[in-house]
Amino acid sequence: MIITIVCATTSFAQSEDITVRRIEVEPSIGIGTGGVSLALEVRNNINPRWDIGPRAGMDFYGTTADVVSDYNFIRPNKNVMFFVGAGMGAGDVSEVGKVPLSYAEDGPAEKSTKFHFMPRAGVELFQHARFTVALHTYNFSQAYIMFSLGVAIGGGRK
């Protein structure tokens, strides 16, 4: 039993000899079923595999403010790195599927603040170009897919 426990715990040991810069900023532009989007993230690289930080975004339906975190699948000496992550926060949005500024007899469509959850996955090329696909959900009842291209400024290997 002891040999099994020792083998199981050491089989996942990986050398973390890769060092990365602590802070990175990523402006991005996206397109999807939510129209065109713009976003800005500031991530703190806790270690080479995990990062966390705030994200502000806006698209056709409204604005969002989230905390995002990603897990990076590091491949030593490779210029391609995959990542998965999620963000959660609040969004000041109109109903997804309705035009937010359609003027009716009584003015523009109403916006409301809703819980925003955003699972995402992507690939980072050459430590700077990031292609991401994300599912933006509001109150787990409204959702749309967004594809984005971002440029990570800072970050990367030292």
What would you note in describing this structure?
The structure is a single chain. This protein is mainly β and 158 residues long. It has a single domain (23-97, 110-154), classed as Porin (Beta Barrel). The chain is built from one helix and nine strands, in the order αβββββββββ. It has an eight-stranded antiparallel beta barrel. Strand 1 (23-32) and strand 2 (35-45) form a beta hairpin.
Using brief descriptors, characterize the structure shown.
158 residues, 9 strands, single chain, elongated, eight-stranded antiparallel β-barrel, 1 helix, mainly beta, Porin
Task: Write a compact overview of the structure shown.
This protein has one helix spanning 2-10; strands spanning 23-32, 35-45, 50-59, 62-73, 80-93, 112-125, 129-138, 142-151, 153-154. The protein has 158 residues and is mainly β.
* Tally of strands: 9
Give the tally of structural domains: 1
Helix amount, in percent?
under 10%
Largest sheet: 8 strands, antiparallel, barrel
Output the helix-strand order. Answer: HEEEEEEEEE
For the record, the CATH architecture stands as Beta Barrel
Question: Which secondary structure elements does this structure contain, and how are they paired or packed?
Answer:
Layout: H1 2-10, E1 23-32, E2 35-45, E3 50-59, E4 62-73, E5 80-93, E6 112-125, E7 129-138, E8 142-151, E9 153-154
Antiparallel strand pairs: 1-2, 1-8, 1-9, 2-3, 3-4, 4-5, 5-6, 6-7, 7-8
